[in-house]
Amino acid sequence: MNEPAADGPVTVGVLYPPEWNADYDTHVERLAALDPRVEVLAEPYSEPEESRSGRGVPPYDDVRDLAPALSDAQRDVFGRMDCCIAIDLPFGVATVAPRLRWVQAVGAGVAQLQSAGLDEAGIVLTNAGGVTSTAIAEFVMARILGEFKRVRELDEMQQRHEWRSVFGQQLAGRTVVLLGFGPINQEVAVRARAFGLHVVAMRRSAEPSPLVDEMVGPDDLLETLGRADIVVCALPETPATDNLLDRTALGAIKRGAVLVNVGRGTLIDEDAMADVLRAGQLRAAAIDVARIEPLPADSPLWAAPNIYISAHCSTDPSRLFENLHELFEGNVRRFLAGEPLLNVVPPP
Questions:
Q1: 265 burial class (0-12, 13-18, 19+ CB within 10 angstroms)?
Q2: Which is deepest, 76, 242, 260, 279, by most CB within 10 Å?
């Protein structure tokens, strides 16, 4: 990405739903004011949650029919835009957006956008890694502290007007294993260190980091899980991470550990996780993501013991969109100048 998108005007599409962002109009106006060459077209395009969560791993056959037909207004914007900020894109997007050269994702996860055929069409993809990491890391620590300090039980006793001492456990000295070491788990590492936890992270390169006590590679997964008092998952959705925590891996986790997943639901075999919770292999699990979202009413996870379920809401939306648009505006300037973009996602 070393050339401007065009010698003349650059058309920027804003495609995510405006109701998600309380400052939507302000952010659109800021984009339009960046440069005289910028034309902003705001036209939302989004797909059902079931479609988004089903586009993580090919072949996507079960969700292709869920994609909405494009309206005339959407077709017009898609046909004119050189770059865009989006949560979803239709399959084969290059056929309806022939000028599109760069897509900025609303979130850190981009599998649903990659499935639109961006790589095949030579369209650059950047993600929003880092814009929500602080808020999500705080959420992770809240779930960990809530379990070890038995907050749920204390709240239940308060509701019953029951005065009885229920003692929690100390975190310091325990081992937390971070699966993935992107911006979210880097922020988790900082907070975990502050609580005196021994921090072990797993990433593909196994390159050391001053933020952790140990760094391991994927080949050490099972051995490392066997040492974990806490496991925090913040991995992207890729074919390599699909079902990474299968029945074997879940069974390898140290008995009585706490598992937190704020990455992608496809990472975990959900039936197996329900089983290990029932068997007491896991002390507790906290999931903010699911393989299918919304989590189906008949999922065994709803009835699993000591599980904490939240609906993909571990971030702070107000900070998310301010940080996101700061990143996007900076990248638009880089796009105009023909400079390398920030947060470029390598092809899957």
A1: buried
A2: 260
Q: What phi, psi does 309 have (nearest 5°)?
A: -115, 130
Question: What tokens appear for 6 in the block?
Answer: 């065009």
CA separation for the pair 108, 111 (Å, rounded): 10
More confident residue, 15 or 53: 15
Amino acid of residue 200: V
CA 73 vs. chain centroid, Å, equals: 30
Within the chain, strands assigned E span 10-14, 38-42, 83-86, 102-105, 124-126, 175-179, 198-202, 214-216, 230-233, 257-261, 282-287, 307-309
Instruction: Determine the pLDDT at residue 84.
Output: 98
**Tens of pLDDT, residues 135-180:** 999 999 999 999 999 999 999 999 999 999 999 999 999 999 999 9
81: its two tokens: 């835009």
The arrangement of strands across the sheet holding 307-309 comes to: 214-216, 198-202, 175-179, 230-233, 257-261, 282-287, 307-309
Beta strands, E only, 229-319: 230-233, 257-261, 282-287, 307-309
Radius of gyration of the chain (CA): 22
